[in-house]
Design goal:
10 strands, single chain, four-stranded antiparallel sheet, about 45% strand
């Protein structure tokens, strides 16, 4: 894996998420008690979860209201054993980095 800079510091407001294209992947990064990276596309109907409402560690897909844990990638309702890929994210002096 390799660390890549995806944004400048302050690019993701506290309590919010933002989608980034990193190589061939769409990744949502959330600023919620630290930074958390997760695949951005909901398994239901390919909607981005990046703009979804956060409630603690849970993000709600804005299209059909499926819920994912932003730390583990686990889908919290409807289907058992479904997870989105998660990624390590770090805030550094010169920006926000993801390990991909």
């Amino acid at each position: 894996m390799a660390w890549k800079k995806v944004a400048e510091k302050g690019a993701i407001a506290s309590g919010k998420g933002r989608e980034f294209q990193v190589d061939e992947k769409k990744i949502a990064i959330f600023n919620q008690d630290g930074y958390h990276g997760i695949d951005a596309i909901c398994v239901h109907q390919d909607a981005s979860i990046a703009s979804g409402a956060l409630d603690g560690d849970i993000v709600e897909c804005p299209l059909h209201f499926w819920h994912y844990n932003i730390k583990t990638g686990e889908l919290k309702d409807y289907l058992k054993g479904v997870k989105l890929q998660t990624y390590k994210v770090e805030a550094r002096n010169d920006g926000i980095y993801i390990d991909i």
